[in-house]
Structures are given as C-alpha cells and as structure tokens.
Write a structure and sequence with these properties.
heterodimer, A: about 220 residues, alpha/beta, Methyltransferase, Methionine Synthase (B12-binding Domains), Chain A, domain 1, Rossmann fold, 2 domains, four-stranded parallel sheet, 11 helices, 4 strands, about 60% helix, about 10% strand, globular, B: about 325 residues, TIM Barrel, eight-stranded parallel sheet, two-stranded antiparallel sheet, 15 helices, about 45% helix
C-alpha cells in the first residue's frame, strides 16, 4: 500500500499539485500518524522526485518550490506530533550554516536547500543573502557546525566563495568544517567547484542532505 | 553599409557586406570612459557617453540602452546594490504583497528618477547614435517584471498559489509595459529586447506557461508599435522556443551559447532573425585564438543565413574583458 501511495504522491509532485499531495498525506496521517506518513510515503516520493530532477532534467524551479512547500508543511506537523507524543528531543543529523555569498541576492535555491536539509533532520542556521566570508566562519564556530553551505547564482558572485575557503585554510579549519557550494552557475560550469575550493556540490536541492551528510561523515 | 542598414538587411534577408554584429557592451562603456558604475547607472548623460565610446572604439551594429534590470525594480521601491565592476543587482526586493503591488502607482519618466534615467539614456542614444547604429531598448515583460519587485520566490508563490492576484498584477503591468515600449519607439529606438525568465520550463511548469504566461505575452506584444527580440534570459531556449515563435511583433530570437543555432533556425523558421551565440560573460576568460575559433564555428554554421546576426549571448561582456578579444571577434566576423 505504501508503494502505491508513494507512486500517487510522486504523480502529484510531477503535476505540481500541492493540494492533492497534502490531502493524500493528511489522509494517511489520520490513520497512521505523520511520522509514518513521512517515512512510508513522503521520503520515498522525495527521493524519486530528486532522482527524476537529476536524471531527466524536465523539472522546473516551480516544481521544486511546490514540493518544498509540501515537505515543509507535513514535516512541521510530524515534528509537532513527535514533540506532543514524546519527551525525547528530536535527533539532529548535524548542524549546517547556509547563506548566499557576499554580493549575491538570489535566495530561492538556498531556501529550498534549507527546507530539504531541515526535512531530513539537519539543524540549519540560515544567514540570508550577501553574507561576508567571515560571518560564515564565525557562525559555524559559534554553533559548532560541520558544514557551511554557500550559494551563488552567477559566476561574478560565486568567485567570492574563495574567501570562505581561504579563511577555513588560514585558520586550520578545513579538516573540521566542510564547504558545500551550489547554485545555477555550478551546473553550468562544473570546474567552478574546484576554482572556489568547494568540498562538494549537487545539481538540485533534494540532493543536498545526502551531500551534507557525506561531507559531515568525512570529517576525521 | 551602416550598422543600422546591416541590421535592417538582417530583418529583410537582403545581402550584407558581413553579418550584423550585436555585442552586449552596456557595462563596457563605463570602462572605456572611466566612469564609476554608480554614476554610470544613474546619469543618462554618462551612460550615453559610454555608448558613444563603444561606438567609436568597436562600432557594433547594435547599441543597447542600459542593461540594468535592477533599475526596473528600483522604480517600484526595491533596493539595489551597486558593485565596482558589474551592473547593479537587486539586493532587497520591495517585497510588496500582491495587494500592495496592485495599489502601488505605476512609475513614469515624469515621476520616477530610475525610469527617467532609462528613458533619457534611450532618447540620447536614439537622437545622437541612432542614424548609423540600431538602438536596442531593454524591457521586462509583464510576467517577468514582478520578480524584481516581489522577489523571485514571492512572485513564484503568487503565480503558483494565488492565480487571481497574479492575473490582476499582469493586467496592470501589461499596460505599463506597452506604454514604456511605445514611448521608447516614439523616441526613435529601433528594437526592444526582452529577457524572458518566466516562460522557461526550467523555471515554471509547462501548464502555467500555456495557460498563464503566453496569453499575457500575446496581449502585451500585440499592442507594441515596433519589433521585439526575445532574449533567452541566461538559460537554454530551444526546448520551448516553439511556444514563442509565433507571438505578435516578435522579429528575432537571441539564444543561449549552449543552444544549437541550426536547431533554433529549424524551430523558428527561415525568416525570423536569429542572434547568437558566443558566450558574452566568458569573453574575459578566452584567448584571442579561442575567440577566433568560436567565431569561425558560428560563422560556418550560419553560412548563407541572411537573417542571422552574430551576437554575444547571455549577460554583459565583463568589465575586465581584454579589448583584444573584442577586436578579434569583430575582425573575424567582418572579414567573413
């Protein structure tokens, strides 16, 4: 049954049908709880959607936005349900700092990444747009984050990410804090990852949790 | 032939001495005159002097009015950040709600400094440079402009989840677009280029493009008194160009450097003007031989295409582009 519902939900994602998707998840959650809805239906459908986004390439930013909204709504309810039913605090996968690099103001991609990171259990500290390199580092040290995620849409602003790499190296933090980079320009120019000194990048927001987890696990 | 004659011949399909050339040197004019960018993007006289310098130094056949889309957002209250070597960028959208945007008075050249700057720059260019060169204005469609006012996510959210408000906004901005475009044509500019984002299936769903975006394009474009160039807006174009090719008053398409010229020609037909496709923002990284090689490939591809204009694709040619690279490009095309 879970597989069938997952397929239905995936269909709602592809058709950009938020109402249909939320209704399906709510209906399942009424009988089985939100945590089960997330585990049995939402997460597998998100994984398939992310795979489709990466491999087929016919998914629009609007699709990603809608799916992000669906995930946000259901995961918030799942978190509330968990708090209500348990005295244990939710397990955190890791702590991440997010922001658009200095001079960059294209926030949508960053917000989507933050949504999907939170959805998969990350504690995200979003610093917003136009963030100087120093601020990424000081916040990461303050909250003991393992990954800094920096977003830039254009080449002209992406090169400012080099400053984050430089500061991490200067302060001997490169083995302790990993640098994830992303934004449209990294898809257009794959060599930019190396140019700015990033530790990793992904093609879409849904792949971000896997990248952040991998980078975090690589810290010795 | 003058540049203007060469561009007109590209529209009519008549023979030319060499293909018409369109280079996005809007920003580069500031480098040639040594003007600071905040002044350049706020003084119509300084901008005009920059374009005059571009004409004197390179003489591309098409000259652009300010490629400063942020100014369109500033006119509605968005805040821009001025950078030392790049065109200004929207730092903080006005983030108007749909209701607030609908209640906001529309800016005009008489009431708003940013629109006055754009309008005056175009007027000076048309008057003083427009006899020999084609002058291209730059505008945003009624479906694309709200992103600079409400923010990309604000506008995306409105289109997706609040269709009625989105339609009211586009109705309001359709009249604004038509008035702005026709005012530019009345001052003597020759074409208007429209970078389009919200008609690209990489941004918005195909269903919304068909049911929402294209009808507004049709309505707005049909009321404009001059030719329009649809610009790819920084993304590949060919996969949805068939949706745009028959829109009213659209005479030309400027494609991405990754799109295939031959494929585009097949999609748009023989008589529409095709512009492309050396990547403008990469010109500062290329060597002269690399520029020549790309030019040769493009020219070979378009040999015999009388409706082709050799153009830089995407955004501005960067400020730090060696002039030798631009010279090499011009030489390669002009000896063709």
């Amino acid at each position: 049954m879970g597989a069938e519902l997952k397929d239905q939900l995936y269909g709602f994602f592809i058709n950009a049908d938020k109402e249909g998707a939320v209704n399906l998840l709510e209906h399942f959650a009424e009988a089985n709880g939100y945590e089960e809805a997330v585990k049995e239906i939402l997460e597998p459908a998100l994984a398939e959607f992310g795979d489709h986004w990466t491999k087929v390439g016919d998914i629009s930013l609007a699709h990603g936005y809608i799916v992000g909204k669906i995930a946000e709504e259901i995961l918030t309810k799942a978190a509330d349900e968990k708090v209500k039913n348990s005295s244990e605090s939710n397990e955190i996968k890791g702590k991440a700092i997010m922001g658009n690099i200095e001079d960059d103001f294209h926030s949508l991609g960053r917000k989507l990444v933050a949504t999907f990171l939170k959805a998969s259990g990350w504690e995200v500290h979003d610093l917003g747009n136009d963030v100087p390199a120093e601020e990424f580092i000081s916040k990461a040290l303050e909250v003991e984050a393992s990954v800094i995620g920096v977003s830039a849409m254009m080449y002209t602003t992406a090169v400012n990410i080099k400053k984050v790499r430089m500061l991490l190296d200067e302060r001997n933090l490169s083995g302790k804090i990993k640098l994830a980079v992303g934004g449209a320009i990294f898809r257009l120019r794959p060599s930019l990852l190396e140019e700015v000194g990033g530790d990793g990048t992904v093609g879409n927001a849904l792949q971000a949790p896997e990248l952040f987890t991998r980078l975090s696990n690589s810290i010795k | 032939m003058t540049g203007l004659e060469r561009v007109f011949a590209s529209v009519t399909g008549d023979k030319k001495d060499y293909p018409a050339i369109s280079l996005t040197l809007s920003l580069y004019g500031a480098r040639l005159t040594g003007c600071s960018l905040p002044e350049y993007y706020n003084s119509s006289l300084k901008y005009y002097e920059g374009m005059k310098a571009v004409k004197e130094r390179f003489n591309p056949d098409i000259l652009f009015t300010p490629f400063a889309l942020a100014a369109e957002g500033e006119a509605f209250g968005s805040k821009a950040k001025y950078l030392p070597f790049y065109a200004p960028n929207i730092a903080k959208p006005a983030t108007l709600s749909p209701k607030e945007l609908l209640e906001t008075p529309l800016p005009s050249a008489a009431s708003n400094e940013r629109i006055k700057y754009l309008y005056e720059s175009a007027r000076l260019m048309a008057k003083n440079l427009g006899k020999e060169n084609a002058i291209a204005g730059i505008l945003l469609s009624p479906v694309d402009l709200p992103a600079l006012i409400m923010g990309l996510d604000g506008w995306l959210d409105t289109i997706i989840f609040h269709e009625e408000e989105a339609r009211k906004i586009c109705e309001k901005l359709t009249g604004y677009f038509v008035d702005r475009a026709n005012a530019l044509f009345n001052e003597g500019i020759h074409i208007i280029a429209l970078p389009v984002i919200f008609s690209n299936p990489a941004i918005i769903t195909k269903g919304i493009i068909d049911s929402f975006v294209l009808p507004y394009f049709s309505k707005a474009f049909s009321m404009v008194k001059g030719p329009l160039v649809i610009h790819h807006g920084g993304m590949q174009f060919n996969n949805y160009l068939n949706k745009l090719k028959d829109l009213p008053n659209v005479a030309a398409f400027a494609i991405d450097a990754k799109d295939k010229l031959k494929e585009t020609r097949e999609i748009i037909g023989k008589e529409k003007v095709l512009l492309g496709n050396i990547d403008g923002p990469s010109l500062n990284r290329y060597s002269v031989p690399h520029v020549e090689q790309i030019c040769r490939r493009i020219l070979d591809d378009r040999e015999g295409d009388n409706h082709f204009i050799f153009a830089s694709s995407a955004a501005d040619i960067p400020y730090d582009t060696p002039p030798e690279n631009i010279d090499a490009l011009l030489k390669a095309v002009r000896r063709n």
